[in-house]
């Protein structure tokens, strides 16, 4: 366990935030690119560093539930229940925004996304800083989220004033997002905390935000994508697709079983067969395969079971965003702009 309480790094990071600077920090999901959520100049710098369009709203990280009232104008009972149960942890809740929340954070929307992270370094930073920290994932717009400090440095380099070291992120994919601003809970982005976990706490069903709705071509162009064309392929077609792709260049495979002896893959990685373990490694593995010198990445489709929902969502986005496509008819949810 990393303990930086009162350490010079945390103090310096808080000082940078107070001065309107940017600090990349670890969370239990992925690394965030933090700036003072009350400072429009700092928030604009976040968008610049990421190359992200300014109308995409940011999540604000808080040190605890006690700060909710400063950011949310209304706290629906269901939201309070979820917050009490899952915070600190990998859950973002969308609330009607308090009038004090600046437009730069919300992209001009009437709602704000809030989350209390559980990573000890994030918590210490929030305590030392005191205010809300606006923090999208610390990657360039449309690229894979970083799950280590090294990824952040590779991705953003000089654009951040400080990168806080916090090891490899436990969860490995971005937080679950539930919108409660309209009264009934809607899942905007699946994550480590599954719909069933949410439903169990609420005692009510959670609606999906257009999970199976086809989207206009191009709207998925920038989503958690590797640079190489990435294809999502059901296990039964894996061998055939690898064979076909191998005729035009080396193929890297991410599967959940061992390499068959006669496979034509240039590189084969057998990932975890447990959904949470798979998610933990997913972005680091995609980064690794992206740099392997291969021409294409072929990923075995995850199982249809509910515990794989979040991984499936990220892989569909990776395939769609890379232009690789998938041999899989489903599309990811509409509402998450995947940035
Ligand atoms: O795990 C996470 O959530 C990470 C860590 C750093 O906390 N953060 C993260 O932020 O993934 P970002 O900006 O990369 O993704 C946040 C997503 C975006 O798709 C954004 O559109 C959505 O949350 N979002 C933020 N505020 C929203 C709002 N008011 N209404 C709807 N969606 C919102
Ligand atoms: Mg992101």
Polypeptide structure, described:
With 339 residues, this protein is α/β, with parallel strands linked by helices. The chain has 2 domains: 7-208, DHBP synthase (Alpha-Beta Complex); 230-322, Rossmann fold (3-Layer(aba) Sandwich). Helices cover 32% and strands 16% of the residues. It has 11 helices and 14 strands. The protein has helices at 8-18, 40-50, 68-71, 77-86, 103-106, 120-129, 149-156, 195-202, 235-246, 275-290, 309-322, and strands at residues 23-25, 32-36, 59-61, 91-96, 111-115, 133-134, 162-163, 176-179, 186-189, 207-208, 230-233, 251-255, 267-270, 296-300. The strands form 2 sheets. Strands 7-1-2-6-3-5-4-8-9-10 form a 10-stranded mixed β-sheet, with helices on both faces. Strands 11-14-12-13 form a 4-stranded parallel β-sheet. Strand 8 and strand 9 (186-189) form a beta hairpin. The longest helix is centred in the last third of the chain and has 16 residues, at 275-290. The model is unreliable at 211-222 and 329-335 (pLDDT under 50). The structure holds threonylcarbamoyladenylate and magnesium ion (MG). Threonylcarbamoyladenylate (TXA) binds next to strand 4 and strand 5.
